[in-house]
């Protein structure tokens, strides 16, 4: 442990982990009390795509605010980067200071920022982003600048994070570029001196403003002519803004309420009720099997009646082969070990989020927590992989350590590097910096792998899981199986039931990821996760019982891909989501979208496959330990 601590300290001291310095930094958590006239910083973030005029998402690429092609006003000496968490960096946040000059309770009317010359080539780039519905993303005191919108169903006002880069209404030939910003900052008064920011609303406008020839003259923002960027010549653009301070009754503790707008809570309740019906149905079937069929089978198998013994059939006949080590058990042990790692990571993250420790004002905190917990639970991966591997008869500790430490994390790392290369090739700000990637690798090799080695050492030394019955030397011949119990049909049947319990909540998660919406209903998500675990376990146990009754003892791998088949339906849902909500125009966006879907589905397969195996293993050991074997 001392060597590990010294390694991490050395990495921090050398600067290799400098991009991770803000990994535990939680911006916006502590309230800031401003005095009248005190400077209030406005920070700018990457521009992100949203739905276009046809209600489609055409791109998943984000671009930095200070990308040279936008020609936005830059502070003297260059923009100053803000502290960001590791998760914030990985998901494309690039937060910098700005040239906006805001002071508490000091209204500003039509203040000029700067005048920029935008060449025709860059004008074409900006117009393309307006057509694709890109949004500005600003922050004041940790609160995102929002647009005030009204829900069509409930007629309630809510804050939609971000505001339009320009306007592109249907039938409009040339998009209008928004170069004027009416900023309304809501504040809550604590006393006569101190005030707190509780809301930020920006109304962007397109104005063909002309800078006065006299340097001392004031800029007029009364122009009714919109700012159109011509692609065949240089464009002179004047950026202006106004600031209005508005007192509000909202307290600092409730300032996120207007941002966290639920589409309709009844949809989440419908999802839970739908999932609960599936769970009740499966529980009833499983209870029927356990309480009636299995009870009768065990009573008959343990009977001393010779006639009953001659009529043995079904799952008792394979007792000598059911605990035979499966083929490729090394890979199976590795997948199960990483599945344990994912399970504990997901469960711990959801509990932390449910208790309110992951505030939406702490950008990227959810992703940071998931990544750090995954690294810490490397001990669980090594322990369970080595224990199962040794129980299956494996003797090479080094082999299982290498496979556990590299297979699942390494596969995800390769896929994410491909996605990151595509982001870098598209000049997107979402491409993770080299320093951040090196920092993650340092955490992987300096913390996760040593924990995996430590866990594997203790798991290998732990007492093996001995089968309750003796294993025959010669494998029993497996009879022909009905079509519905063959590997592919049975896996597809099992996967659809598990997917049916989560697909509604999956829609909100997909919207949160690709449409940059704030996801915060962790109470519903925690319940859905519990239902997912129960459903996966019950479905896999049922199908395992059916396979054993058909005298097919190859339940180890079958329980994994029967439970993990739900990942196939998740991927199909991703394809459906792509055709219904997205219209990605570039190959880079396609690779990024489907690359992330492959990573998510692969990890979901490992997670659900492990749940299915553990449930089947407990079930099989329980029923075979309850019968008498001659």
Automatic annotation (TrEMBL):
Subcellular location: Membrane
BP GO annotations: protein localization to membrane; vacuolar transport
Source species: Coemansia guatemalensis
Family matches, as InterPro entries: EMP70
Descriptive protein name: Transmembrane 9 superfamily member
GO cellular component entries: cytoplasm; membrane
Family the UniProt entry places it in: Belongs to the nonaspanin (TM9SF) (TC 9.A.2) family.
Keyword annotations: Membrane, Signal, Transmembrane, Transmembrane helix
Membrane topology of this protein: Multi-pass membrane protein
First-listed, main subcellular location of the protein, grouped into a coarse class: membrane
Transmembrane spans: 269-291, 331-357, 369-389, 401-426, 438-460, 491-514, 520-548, 560-579, 591-615
Signal peptide start and end residues: 1-23
Domain of life, per lineage: Eukaryota
PANTHER family xref list: TRANSMEMBRANE 9 SUPERFAMILY MEMBER 2, TRANSMEMBRANE 9 SUPERFAMILY PROTEIN
């Amino acid at each position: 442990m001392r060597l590990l601590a010294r390694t991490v300290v050395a990495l921090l001291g050398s600067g290799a982990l400098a991009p991770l310095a803000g990994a535990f930094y939680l911006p916006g958590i502590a309230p800031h009390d401003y005095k009248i006239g005190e400077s209030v910083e406005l920070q700018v973030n990457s521009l992100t795509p949203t739905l276009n005029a046809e209600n489609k998402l055409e791109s998943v690429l984000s671009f930095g605010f200070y990308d040279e092609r936008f020609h936005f006003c830059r502070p003297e000496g260059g923009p100053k980067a803000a502290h960001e968490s590791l998760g914030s960096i990985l998901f494309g946040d690039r937060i910098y200071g700005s040239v906006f000059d805001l002071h508490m309770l000091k209204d500003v009317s039509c203040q000029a920022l700067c005048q920029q010359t935008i060449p025709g080539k860059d004008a074409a780039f900006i117009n393309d982003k307006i057509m694709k519905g890109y949004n500005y993303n600003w922050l004041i005191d940790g609160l995102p600048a929002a647009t005030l919108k009204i829900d069509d169903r409930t007629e309630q006002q809510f804050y939609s994070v971000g505001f339009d880069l320009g306007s592109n209404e249907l039938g409009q030939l040339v998009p209008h570029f928004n170069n004027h910003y009416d900023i309304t900052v809501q504040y809550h008064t604590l006393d006569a001196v101190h005030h707190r920011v509780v809301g930020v609303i920006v109304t962007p406008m397109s104005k063909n403003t002309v800078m006065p020839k006299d340097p001392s003259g004031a800029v007029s923002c009364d122009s009714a002519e919109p700012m159109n960027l011509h692609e065949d010549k240089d464009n002179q653009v004047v950026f202006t803004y106004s600031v209005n301070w508005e007192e509000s009754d909202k307290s600092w503790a409730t300032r996120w309420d207007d941002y966290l707008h639920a589409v309709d809570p009844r949809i989440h309740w419908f999802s839970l009720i739908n999932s609960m019906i599936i769970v009740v149905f499966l529980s009833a079937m499983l209870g029927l099997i356990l309480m009636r069929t299995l009870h009768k089978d065990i009573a008959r198998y343990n009977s001393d009646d010779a006639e009953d013994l001659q009529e043995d059939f079904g799952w008792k006949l394979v007792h000598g082969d059911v605990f035979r080590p499966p083929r490729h058990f090394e890979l199976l042990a590795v997948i199960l070990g990483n599945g344990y790692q994912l399970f504990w990571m997901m469960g711990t993250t959801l509990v932390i989020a449910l208790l309110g420790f992951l505030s939406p004002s702490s950008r990227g905190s959810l992703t940071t927590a998931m990544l750090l917990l995954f690294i810490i639970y490397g001990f669980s991966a090594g322990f369970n992989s080595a224990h199962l591997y040794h129980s299956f008869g494996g003797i090479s500790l080094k082999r299982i350590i290498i496979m556990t430490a590299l297979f699942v994390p390494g596969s995800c790392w390769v896929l994410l590097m491909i996605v990151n290369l595509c982001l870098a090739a598209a000049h997107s700000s979402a491409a993770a910096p080299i320093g951040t990637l090196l920092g993650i690798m340092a955490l992987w090799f300096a913390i996760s792998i040593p924990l995996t080695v430590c866990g594997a050492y203790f798991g290998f030394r732990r007492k093996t899981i001995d089968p309750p019955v003796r294993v025959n030397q010669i494998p029993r011949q497996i009879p022909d199986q009905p079509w519905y119990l063959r590997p592919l049909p049975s896996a597809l049947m099992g996967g659809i039931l598990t997917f049916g319990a989560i697909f509604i909540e999956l829609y909100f998660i997909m919207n949160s990821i690709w449409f940059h919406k704030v996801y915060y209903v962790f109470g519903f998500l925690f319940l859905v996760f519990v239902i997912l675990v129960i459903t996966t376990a019950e479905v896999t146990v049922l199908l395992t019982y059916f396979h054993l009754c058909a005298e097919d003892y190859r339940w180890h791998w079958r329980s994994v891909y029967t439970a993990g088949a739900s990942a196939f339906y998740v991927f199909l849902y991703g394809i459906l989501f792509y055709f219904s909500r997205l219209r990605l125009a570039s190959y880079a966006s396609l690779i990024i979208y489907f690359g992330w879907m492959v990573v998510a589905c692969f990890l979901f397969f490992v997670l659900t496959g492990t749940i299915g195996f553990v449930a089947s293993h407990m079930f099989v050991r329980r029923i075979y330990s309850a019968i008498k074997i001659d």
